[in-house]
Design brief:
Layout: E1 2-7, H1 9-12, H2 21-36, E2 40-45, H3 48-56, H4 63-86, E3 91-97, H5 99-103, H6 105-120, E4 123-129, H7 143-153, E5 158-163, H8 198-210, E6 214-219, H9 225-229, E7 236-238, H10 246-253, E8 259-263, H11 265-272, E9 282-286, E10 294-299, E11 302-308, H12 313-321, E12 336-338
Parallel strand pairs: 1-2, 1-5, 2-4, 3-4, 5-6, 8-10
Antiparallel strand pairs: 6-7, 8-9, 10-11, 11-12
Helix pairs in contact: 2-4, 3-4, 7-8
């Protein structure tokens, strides 16, 4: 089984603000055992900022200070991971990524190729957001979302979001075994070190499940990875309804649309039937984008799909304004991810 596991800062950091080596040792043991039994495991790990605090004794105020903390802490974090995995004869590798690494198709595929090469060499990838360079424009925002992106890109069977809570709680404070959008969710505050919280985990779990990956939110303190991989787990499960084409999953859940194309009802129905988007039925476009960028396809006030365009915004605007009746496809059917029906 191919599985992405994510560990939050509140699991990795002790009360003294330093990396909890005992917990990392538990991670190394569980992951190594799973790999030895034939599973493919990929790690997304928080903890760099908190690791920096353990050394510098400062949480930082300015963005540059927080980034400095991450620069110091990432070395400490990976040092501990490396030392603990070596005890099980396993090597690890570090990948630091930003939002643009996922949004750009070529860079995204390069990341997947690198990870697959690490797998070939028997090396365990440990992924974190590149907090030392990430700004609001290019950051993923939290490692829950990053882990969902990674599970989609790897076409993983399972995403496990390990946290300090047992799962998603209902209005009575009980763990919801299987996530259902109709349930009322108790609001849980953000924890001490993490940038997310239960809301980001729910969002990541839904995203992964919508893309065909089984997602689970569970308590990392009670971790038994082999048991989970065998289908016996505690926590909240997000079950996928279907397995999506890898490229369409990337288009729908990972890309960052650069513009919008508005369509009439006829074009909407054609898209829902699996047809390409043509100039006929397209009413207007917004934004500045280039060939191979992604755009939102909108009918009325609803985003019905996301697609990769075959032309620039300037060319598409001209085609729409001239009411061209040719069969040039603005977005090919194979490059359109339908979001609603």
């Amino acid at each position: 089984m191919k599985c992405v596991v994510k560990f939050g800062s509140n699991l990795l950091v002790g009360k003294d603000g330093k990396i909890d080596r005992a917990f990392v040792r538990k991670v190394a043991f569980e992951v190594s055992k799973a790999i030895d039994q034939g599973h493919e495991i990929f790690i997304v790990s928080s903890g760099a900022k908190a690791g920096g605090y353990g050394i510098l004794k400062s949480k930082g105020v300015k963005l540059s200070e927080k980034q400095a903390l991450c620069a110091v802490g990432q070395i400490e974090l990976m040092k501990i991971y490396s030392e603990e995995f070596q005890k099980f004869d396993k090597a690890v590798a570090q990948l630091l990524l930003t939002r643009e690494d996922f949004a750009n198709r070529k860079r995204f595929l390069n990341i997947m190729n690198t990870i697959n090469s690490l797998k070939h060499f028997g090396v365990i990838p440990i992924v974190n957001e590149n907090d030392t360079v990430a700004t609001e424009e290019i950051k993923v925002g939290d490692n829950d979302t990053l882990s969902a992106y990674l599970s989609i890109g790897l076409k993983a069977d399972m995403l496990v979001l390990f946290s300090v809570v047992d799962g998603v709680l209902d209005e009575n404070g009980n763990v919801i075994g299987e996530f259902d959008n109709r349930r009322n969710i108790a609001k849980l505050g953000n924890t001490n070190w993490g940038s997310g919280g239960i809301s980001t985990k729910i969002k990541a779990g839904k995203m992964a499940a919508d893309a065909g990956v089984t997602a689970i939110i569970t308590n990392g303190k009670k971790m038994n990875l082999i048991q989970m991989l065998n289908g016996n787990t505690e926590g909240t499960i997000f079950r996928p309804s279907k397995k999506l084409n890898a490229k369409k999953a990337w288009i729908g859940f990972v890309t960052r649309p650069k513009g919008k194309i508005y369509v009439d009802d006829g074009a909407k129905e054609a898209i829902f039937r699996g047809k390409s988007l043509l100039p006929v039925g397209s009413t207007s476009c917004e934004g500045i984008f280039s060939k191979d960028d992604t755009v939102e396809i909108i009918n009325g006030d609803q985003v019905i799909a996301i697609g990769i365009v075959n032309y620039s915004s300037r060319t598409i605007e001209k085609m729409i304004n001239e009411k061209t009746r040719d069969l040039d496809e603005l977005c090919h059917a194979d490059k359109i991810m339908v979001l609603i029906k």
